Amino acid sequence: MPILVMKFGGTSVATLDRIRRAAKRVGREVANGYDVIVIVSAMAGETNKLVGYVDETSPLYDAREYDAVVSSGENVTAGLMALTLQEMDVPARSWQGWQVPLKTNAAHAAARIMEIPTDNIMAKFGEGMKVAVVAGFQGVSPEGRITTLGRGGSDTTAVAFAAAFGAERCDIYTDVDGVYTTDPRICEKARKLEKIAFEEMLELASLGAKVLQTRSVELAMRFKVRLRVLSSFEDNDEHAGTLVCDEEDIVEQNAVAGVAYSRDEAKMTLVSVADKPGIAAAIFGPLADAGVNVDMIVQNISEEGRTDMTFSCPTNQVARARQAMEGAKDRGEIEYNDLIADTDVCKVSIVGIGMRSHAGVAAKMFAALRDEGINIRVITTSEIKVSVLIDRKYMELAVQALHDTFELEKTA
Amino acid sequence: MPILVMKFGGTSVATLDRIRRAAKRVGREVANGYDVIVIVSAMAGETNKLVGYVDETSPLYDAREYDAVVSSGENVTAGLMALTLQEMDVPARSWQGWQVPLKTNAAHAAARIMEIPTDNIMAKFGEGMKVAVVAGFQGVSPEGRITTLGRGGSDTTAVAFAAAFGAERCDIYTDVDGVYTTDPRICEKARKLEKIAFEEMLELASLGAKVLQTRSVELAMRFKVRLRVLSSFEDNDEHAGTLVCDEEDIVEQNAVAGVAYSRDEAKMTLVSVADKPGIAAAIFGPLADAGVNVDMIVQNISEEGRTDMTFSCPTNQVARARQAMEGAKDRGEIEYNDLIADTDVCKVSIVGIGMRSHAGVAAKMFAALRDEGINIRVITTSEIKVSVLIDRKYMELAVQALHDTFELEKTA
């Protein structure tokens, strides 16, 4: 039998009634001839409740105990889903992470999957079981302790199972009906994409489109898992949702697939840095050591041995970044006159594998922003992405202007 | 280091604040020089919530999935208790049933403990860990699936750990401060017992005194585990609570240790049964097959080949008992004219190992009831117990009269 992986997020299993609705979808795929592996999250709100307990108990908690506590929500849903399927006469049973066992490293609260043995579940499929319900987000460490994969880890669980079992597809059921050219809440012309390439989805995910966890997309790209994002609240036909797939599977291609944005950006400028060999290492080494995720970097042209160095990082890392820079200054590793933090900025990006073969995409983007009078603070580019840092008040305007410029409301 | 087992029930860990209070008690025992094994229940209400989910999902549920779901509450408390202890600088970690592993048979929802290996936890004690926090109520089957021990199973977990680790004592923290001569709510002269023998506690537990689960007392008696019941809401000195122990440890002994009662009794009478050899087997065989827990049995003297047969069983098994009897009648295995069920009765019992050496205890009980005008419907006795079935309206009166007659308010 071909194998299908179906993943249901917290809002899709928030109540017994929604679990029943999800189970019906699973039942239909069984009727279609699949052996199904269902990955479930905790009922919406449960994991937050458990995280709250841990935070209140112990500000600097032992991550091994954190994992033992917060993984319990998924176990409840897995058992309930198996029972619901059995009620519908679909042979099913639940697996907790340690029962599979989904083996991870010992990096508690952010563990990485090492191995998923398939023999146990395949044997049950061989005996006539039709659905294996697996608690998402969790695994077991080499020491036999429970680990979790980090928030959103159930997406990663689902893709890893699809890869391990050679599944035909991995369907991610969520509360939106697919991936859009941009956020429909700020651009009403936004269009649902029928297909998107892994690389594009990866850029969009890391740029803040919250549909899929970044790591799950990485994993899907690496193991060529066909990933479909679709709504658990609508009737889905064969064109439902968005298929995340290899770029070869996408015949016609716009130069730009989507416009992403992120409010969670801060711009930091080191003013009048003494410019000498190794200065970049002297700045970004301490930032990395302090765990600051530096995103964009711009260095002005050096004048009289001094330069300005600007970088961006998540808003909540500003204090940490400032501490790291002041420390390096105190130790005499760097010299600068001032450190200016600006949190009143945002990042807007265009993403598309078509950029590789279409020249002038970046120039067209800059012109569109200029026409709206939007000043660009920092620019970064990759092969399939152009990102700009702009003043936050222009965010919606920039997104709408770029959506229009690249005619994203039209299919290729 | 001597080992102490401490068990905290659901009301004792109902909130983070109560968990902290319980952890302080644990910390004090560590300061007293013990290595401590803490057994925790789920936070009060959690298990009922999970059982409710299962019941609503599937009326005839798969007990293996039931166990996977309902065991999760204890996992949460175990992790939180370990974190709380760590916050107090007490080295602690949590274990879930499968991690110990607490091995049970495969009788899901009512599993029996087969083995508790001690090496894993002892090795951690050897490394300086002071407290092992174990999720109560749960274990793992030979097939590697989660099992539960039945409601109240955390008491049994605690006693089993105390036996396996040769603990000096097993302290059961609960919402009452010990075992009383009778229920203080219906007899204000009730007195807390400082000590009670295993055999007496066993009779009281099975007669409906809800302080300890019957199986935990059986296990304690078999493995000579000194069991102490005490309140988690009061300051406890060395005389606190009630010690359940070997009868040799109790120097002075009243003939009667306590008076127990149970409202959950029904009296069933088969009227005019054809009395022939094997009739008892023909009646009680089908009842046992139907899962009816028959408690007391009385057979009238046979007249003209007919007799009346009366037995008692829990109130909620009346329908099942009737069905079993009617089935046997239909199959021609027994003959009777009528089957009368009376649920307006109750059982009152006196319990005491002193009865073995004191003659006339039963006679004194019957006289006390007669003096109050209370009619006895059925009697059963064991070596250390006399139980009578009486009309329910006389229950409180009977308990108070017996408490007075045997002067239970006085210590021996």
3D structure, described in words:
2 copies of one chain form a homodimer. The first copy, chain A, has 412 residues and is an alpha/beta fold. The first copy, chain A, folds into 2 domains: 248 residues, 3-Layer(aba) Sandwich (Carbamate kinase), CATH 3.40.1160; 155 residues, VC0802-like (2-Layer Sandwich). An 8-stranded mixed beta sheet of chain A has the order 3-6-2-1-9-11-12-10, with helices on both faces. A 4-stranded antiparallel beta sheet of chain A has the order 13-18-20-19, sandwiched between helices. In chain A, helix 7 packs antiparallel against helix 8, helix 9 packs across helix 10 and helix 11 packs across helix 12. The radius of gyration of chain A is 24 Å and the shape is globular. The first copy, chain A, starts with a strand and ends in a 7-residue tail after the last helix. In chain A, 50% of the residues are buried. The model of chain A has no long low-confidence stretch (mean pLDDT 92). At the A-B interface, helix 2, helix 3 and helix 4 of A face helix 2, helix 3 and helix 4 of B.
